Amino acid sequence: MADKRLVITIGRQYGSGGAETGRRLAEELGIGFYDKNILRVNSDESGIKESYFHLADEKAGSRLLYKIISSLTPDKGTPSFGSDLVSADNLFRFQSEVIRKLAAAESCVIIGRCADYVLEGMDGLVRIHIYADYEAREQRIREKNLYSEKEIKKNIKRIDRERRDYYKYYTGRDWESLDNYDLAINTTQIGVDGAVRVIKNYVSLLEHV
Prior knowledge:
This protein is α/β, with parallel strands linked by helices and 209 residues long. Helix content is 51%, strand content 11%. The chain is built from eight helices and five strands, in the order βαβαααβαβααβα. It has helices spanning 18-29, 45-52, 62-71, 88-105, 115-118, 134-144, 149-171, 187-206, and strands at 7-12, 32-34, 108-111, 125-131, 183-186. The protein has a five-stranded parallel sheet with strand order 2-3-1-4-5, sandwiched between helices.
């Protein structure tokens, strides 16, 4: 899709390798990559305002993200910067506005954030869901040394539940329903490398449809 915009959204089960797949995919395609750093929030208003302008790295796209965020002002009918700044609903509106502007400006990969829903109907949108068998997810989290052994299962279930509830609240849809996606990939056998290849092949096929 050299001459057409390509925006790939990735929803993923915790421990499935979805974020890593998205990062690797963006690198190989030479397009932007956006994840939770689209909107990194802290507990107080000053921290949130500062976080809007915090970018994790200097990769291509970071300057675009800064430009988009700094251009959002209340007089343009965008999310409030007032006393309700920290409300979950306002943060979602802000985040969604940023996602729409990113997608309109460049080809990119966006992880989570209900981006498949926010960008629904957009030309060049490819919606991916990454999942894996439970044991494979456990092993992936275990290798990251994020939790003690007895905490791994609990946190996988907790984070999946949070993602499921977040998606349901803001979209009214079932997070794991295949109706929301163009392609679902189980990484248990093929891993991140395989998932990247599958997505690239799928995108290539779309060019000839």
